[in-house]
Amino acid sequence: MKQALRKIRLLCDLDDGQLERIAAIASIERVKTGDIVVEEQGPANSIRAVAEGRVSIAVSVPGRGELPVCTVSVGEILGWSALLPQARWLATARAVKDTTLIVLRGAALLDLYEQDRELGYRVMHRTFETVAERLHDTWLQLMDSYRQ
Amino acid sequence: MTPPPAHWLERDELGHLLALIRGDGYRLIGPTVDGAAIIYDEIEGVDELPVGWTDEQAPGRYRLRRRDDDAIFGFAVGPHSWKQRLFPAREPLVQIRRDGDDIRFSAARADPPPTAFIGVRACELAAIELQDRVFVRGPFVDHRYAARREACLIIAVNCVEAGELCFCASMGTGPRVGPGYDLCLTELDGGFVVEAETEAGAALVQRLDARAAADAELTARDAGLDSCRQTMGRELDTEGLPGLLFGNLDHPRWTEVAERCLACGNCTQVCPTCFCFDVKDVSLLANAETARERSWDSCFGQDHSTIHGAVFRPAIADRYRQWLTHKFASWTSQFDASGCVGCGRCIAWCPVGIDVTEELSAIRSQDPKPAIELPRPQVWWPREDDPLVPAPARVLEVQPETPDTVTLVIERTTAVREEPGQFNMLSLPAIGDVPISVSGSGEDFVEHTLRGVGRATKALSELRPGQRLGVRGPFGSRWPIELAKDHPLTLIAGGVGLTPLRSAMQQLAANPDDYPAVRLFYGARSAADILYDTELLAWDSLPSCDVSVTVDQASRRWLGNIGFVTRLLRRKELPLDGRYFICGPEVMMRQVLFLLDEAGVPKSHRFVSIERNMKCAAGFCGRCQYGPYFVCKDGPIFRHDHIDFIFGQPGF
Amino acid sequence: MASCDGCQLTLLDCEDELLALGEAVDIVHFPEASSALRPQGRFDLTLVEGSISTPEQLEEIRHIRAVSHALVVIGACATSGGVQALRNFADHEQFMRVVYATPSYVSSLADSTPISAHVPVDFELRGCPIDKAQLLEVITASVVGRKPGIPNEAVCMECKRRGVVCVMVARGQTCLGPVTHAGCGALCPAYDRGCYGCFGPRESANTGSLATWELGRGRSKADMVRAFRLITGAAPAFEHESKRHEP
Question: Which of C116, C117, C134, C133 has the alpha carbon at shortest distance from C125?
Fold first, then answer.
C-alpha cells in the first residue's frame, strides 16, 4: 500500500511514518470500465486517488444525460468534497477504463490532520495545489479556444 | 577615392539641363506649387518649379510664403515624397483569369517610362535607399518596384537652408546628399555647383555649358551645408534608441500620446520610408477577370492587425507604439538601419501636431527602464521568382477530416520542397489568398489541412478534385527537427495547431533511430474535431512515439481524456534537455510555456508557431510584423527566447 | 425607411454595371426602379436604405430581417440615423407642433435611429450618399463569397493615396477626415474643403483630440457642435463629441 501511496502527488511531501498512518486508513477499490465510482447526490464520504486507469467526472443534465467535464488519471485525486462537512457528491464519477483506486475515508483523514497537524498541513497544501490547477485548467477549457 | 570633379552651372542653364534630360526621353517629376503646398508633379521646365517660394512649417502646420529672392530650391520637403513614384499608392500586382476550372495568374508588369526625379533632397535619397532594402534587397525582389527604380534618373539637391522640422543631421542622412544620385546640385547665388556620381550624370554635365567649379564656389557650397546642419529645427538623440524603445513598451508616454493621436495614418502616408500595403481582389460580380491590387496601408488602421476577427492592436496606444517602435527600432533589426531619415514630414502633416522627436525624447528622459538587446538582422539568400504571383495547381484529392475541416492534396508546382512548419499562400480568384501551413508533402504533392471558418478558407474547403487554385510559396521558417536529434522531443498541439506539426511528426516517426523518444500531446475541441485520427493511432503504436489526446468537450461515449491540454502536461515529465515544439492558439501556447517555465526547461529549447495578419508573405507588406520580426520570413516558427520580450504582450 | 432615396439612386447610377448585376442577381424588389409589388418569400441579400423613424418602419424592419439571409444597410440614415436624427437632440413634440398643422396625423418616433439599433445587420455601408463602387463591391463580395473590400479607415488615407494636400495642415480648415470613415474618395478635401463626416465615425475615432486641437487654434465650442452635429451627428462618437461642447 505504501508503494502505491508514494505515487500520489497529494502525499508526495510525507515521510515514511506519515505515509504509514495514511496507509492505515486507506483501502483499495477496483472498478471496471463503465462502473460508477460515486454518484451525484450521494453522501461524499471518501477522497480517492487513481492508482491505475481513468475516471471521468460528469454532471447530469436533464434531457441530455451525463455530461463529462473532465477526466482524472493516474496519480490524481477526485472527491475532495469528502473533506467538507456534510457534503454530497456534486458529480458522478465513472470509470472509463478498468481502474484501481485508493480510497481514503474523509472523516478518518480529517482525524489524522487533527492528530498530526504537520501531516495535515502538507496534505492540505497539495490539495490546494490540485484544486487550483484544476480550476485554472477549467478556465482554459471554458474558453473554447480552438473554436476560431 | 577622389571626389568627382564639381562643375558650375549658371542659374539660367538649369532650363537647358532639364531640356537635355527631357530630350533623352525622360519625363520630369519635380517640385511645383499646387494650391497650398509644394508638391511633386510632372513638369516641363524651370517655370513650373517653385521659383521664389518657400514654406513655413510647424507641428500640424504648413504654409506657403514668398521669398525675398528667386531661389528655385529654397524650400523644405512638402507633403509628397518620391515614394509615390516608386511605390504607387495603388497598383495591380496580378491579373487573374478564370476559364471554367482553369485559372491563369499573370504578373502585372510595371513597364515604367524613364523618369527623372528633379530636386531629390539628401533625406529623400536616403529614404529611397531604405525602400530599396525592403523591396529589392530582402529575400525576394519586388519586380515592379525594381523596374521603376531602374528607370529613374536622380537629380539631387543639397539643402543649404534647414526647415523648422528637419533633423536629417541627427539621423545621419543629410544635409549633404549621400551616394545614389546621378547629378547633385547645390544652389548658390547665381547658379549651381553640379556634381555627377554616375556615368549618366557625367554625360549630362559634358553636354552642358558648365565650367569646373571654382574653389570659392565649393567653399560656399560647404558653408551652405554647414549652416544648414547647424540650423536644423529639430534634433534627436538616436543613441541606443532601438533597445531603449523595446525596453520601454509599457512607458506611460504611450498612453499619453494616444490621447492626442488620431490614428488617422497621415504620418505613415507622408513618411517616405513607410512601406505597408494591403492586397485586395478587385472584380465585378462573377466576372472572369480579377485584378489583385495593392494599396498603401497604415499600422494605424484596424484592418492592419486583424485576422479572423481578432484585432492584435485594438488601442490607439498599441498602434502609435507599433509605428514608433517600428520606425526607430524594428527597422534596425529588419533592415540594418533606422527607418527614419529625419525629413520632418510626419510632424508637419500630423493634423494635431504630434512631434516624434518630442515623443522619443520624452520616453528617453521620463524615468526609462533599461534598454534591451534586439535581434540582429537576418541574412537572406535572394530568390528569383516573383513571390506575389501564384502558380495554378490542381487539387488531386480532398480528404474530409472533421465536419468543417478538410485536407487538400494539391499537385506540387514549386521546385522547392516544403519543410515542416512552412506555409503556402493559397488563392482563389476574386476572393484572395490566405496563408495555410503545410501539413504534409511528397515528391509531387503538397497537403494543406484547413478549416472553413473565414470566407477564403470556406471557399478553399469547398474545392473538389480536379479544380484549380493558386499556390505561392513555400514561405517562412520551419521546425528545427535536426536540433532535436538525440534529445527527447515533445510536440504540443492545440486545435488546428496540429496541422503544421503533422508533417514534422511524419518525419520524426519515420526516423526512430534519430528520434527515439517523441511525445505528442494534442488538445482538441471535441472528439469530432480530432484531426488525423488514424495517423495518431499509428504513431502511438510505434515504440519511438507516444501520443496523448485530450478534448475540451465530450459526450459519455468518449473514453479518452477530457480537459485542457495543460492537464495532460501536468502529469508528465518535462525533461530539461528535451526539445519542445508548440503550436496552437496563443492563449494555449502561453499556458504551456508557463508550465515549461515551472519545470525549468530553458527557453532556447522551446519553439512556437506565431500567427499574424499576412498579405504578401514575402516581407514587403509589413502587416505580419511582430515586434522586430516579420512572421512571414522570420517566422512562423520562433525560438521562445527570441520573442519572449513581446510574447503575450498586449498590442503586438 | 426614412431617407431621401438618394442611396437607391446610386444603384441606378451603376449604368454599365447594372447589366452585369442583372445577370448575376435577380432583383425582386426595388422601389426606385420599379413599382412591382413586394414579393413574398425569402431573400439572399436585402439592401435597406433609411433610418427607423416611425412605428411602422420598426415593424417592417423586423419582418425584413426575418426573411433575409443577409441584410446590408446602406447610407448614413440606415447606419447612423441620418440628418433627420438631428431631432434626437431636440424636443420632437415641439417640432411636430411647429411644422404640422395637425400633428396628430403624424405617426413618428421621438428618435431617428440606425437599423442596427433594432435588428442585427450583416454589413453597414456608409455614406451620404453611398459610393457606387463600394455598393458594387458589397454586392460582388456577397455573390462571390469574399469579405467586402471596404476598410474601416480614416478619410485621410484616401487623401494621401490621391496625393491631396491636407486642408487642415496647409489651409487651417476644420476637417472631420481623421475621424471619419473612408469611402467617398476624399471628395471634399480634393476640392479644398474640410470633410463634413458624411460617412460617419470610423473605428477608434479620437474626436476629443481633434476638437481640442481645433479649439486650441481659435475655433469656438459652437463651431465644434456644428462640425460634429451634421449628416451623421447621431452616430455615437459624433453625438458624444458635440454634446461635450454644448453650452
Answer: C134
